[in-house]
Amino acid sequence: MEAMRHSSTFLRPPADAAASSFYALVVLNQRLPRFAPVLWSHARLRVFADGGANRVYDGMPELFPEVDPMEIRHSYFRTKFGFGFLSYHGLISVLYVKNKATYYVSGGANLRWYKPDIIRGDMDSIRPEVKEFYINLGVPIDDLSNDQDTTDLHKCVAHICESMDELDKSNLCILVAGALGGRFDHEAGNINVLYKFSNIRIVLLSNDCLIQLLPKTHCHEIHIQSLAEGPHCGLVPIGAPSTSTTTTGLQWDLTDTGMSFGSLISTSNIVLAEKITVKSDTDLLWTISIKKGI
Ligand SMILES: Nc1ncnc2c1ncn2[C@@H]1O[C@H](COP(=O)(O)OP(=O)(O)OP(=O)(O)O)[C@@H](O)[C@H]1O
Ligand SMILES: Cc1ncc(C[n+]2csc(CCO)c2C)c(N)n1
């Protein structure tokens, strides 16, 4: 069985991380994670899900309270906030140090960094002035209000998949900001997207943790970014019970163990090793805490 490798290098500044994946970012309608600028600077495709546009419009300036909000929305390159350098993808970046946390505010050729590639959804949550702001920036707005059977996250993931060819898709990893910690029906819908697109790497993120699917078709090697994540973790058989799961590297490892709701599921586990291995006869959710300091 082929091993699938996982590593949350997107939680580290791009300069620290090897660019092994093609990252796409979906911003949902929840408060932005404090490390949203780091996710943004990794992403090569950015999609706002309906009301997610309000969160960037309102939230990015809140992460940089000293700077004029309109300037952040356009993200003009200003050396007085840090120092400029050419990052690995050839874009101008600014190292910005605020409250001991380090952010990268990067500018593309037109220096309008917080401009998404598209806004997609059923458009019942984006505020009129926010919609107008992005229309004036030339952002395409994809109004799919006729589809009331799939969520805005589903619509955005489908768009990302449609816009990539098969070869690029094997390298694709979709980061979803604001997916957890809010309404439970939305959280369940977001988790369901992991299952609907189980052939695509998707990471659901909140300020506190991340969740991804470990498909049963592979054994899994999870390389822990210990500066940014852990030690608390869990393995949850949400879609179907497991009759056999085996792990290494955890404080409470499983050895050919069954897991199901109503009996055992692995919560409040602890990562002990730099590499965790997981093999199961069912799809599992992997979750790990995100460190407060990042
Ligand atoms: N409280 C939340 N918790 C988790 N995810 C959320 C939450 N609110 C929104 N989302 C995510 O952000 C996406 C866009 O949110 P938005 O509020 O625009 O959706 P919506 O379709 O208007 O939702 P609804 O009509 O059910 O309130 C949703 O599809 C969902 O994936
Ligand atoms: C059985 C069933 N339950 C709920 C909905 C409602 N719904 C699901 S996704 C969505 C779009 C949200 O942007 C809406 C309204 C439905 N269609 N079918």
TrEMBL record:
The protein's GO terms of the molecular function aspect are: ATP binding; kinase activity; thiamine binding; thiamine diphosphokinase activity
Does this entry carry the keyword Nucleotide-binding? yes
What's a single GO CC term here?
A: cytosol
Annotated EC? 2.7.6.2
Alphabetical list of Gene3D superfamilies matching this protein: Thiamin pyrophosphokinase, catalytic domain
Q: Which GO terms describe its biological process?
A: thiamine diphosphate biosynthetic process; thiamine metabolic process
Q: Which CDD domains match?
A: TPK (cd07995)
Q: State the compartments where it is located.
A: Cytoplasm, Cytosol
Under catalytic activity, the entry for this protein gives:
thiamine + ATP = thiamine diphosphate + AMP + H(+)
| SUPFAM superfamilies, sorted | Thiamin pyrophosphokinase, catalytic domain, Thiamin pyrophosphokinase, substrate-binding domain
Which pathway or pathways does this protein act in?
Cofactor biosynthesis; thiamine diphosphate biosynthesis; thiamine diphosphate from thiamine: step 1/1
Q: What is its main location?
A: cytoplasm
Domain spans labelled Thiamin pyrophosphokinase thiamin-binding: 220-284
UniProt keyword terms in alphabetical order: ATP-binding, Kinase, Nucleotide-binding, Transferase
Q: Which PANTHER family match?
A: THIAMIN PYROPHOSPHOKINASE (PTHR13622), THIAMIN PYROPHOSPHOKINASE 1 (PTHR13622:SF8)
Q: What does this protein do?
A: Catalyzes the phosphorylation of thiamine to thiamine pyrophosphate (TPP). TPP is an active cofactor for enzymes involved in glycolysis and energy production. Plant leaves require high levels of TPP for photosynthesis and carbohydrate metabolism.
* UniProt similarity note: Belongs to the thiamine pyrophosphokinase family.
Record's protein name: Thiamine pyrophosphokinase
Lineage at the top is:
Eukaryota, Viridiplantae, Streptophyta, Embryophyta, Tracheophyta
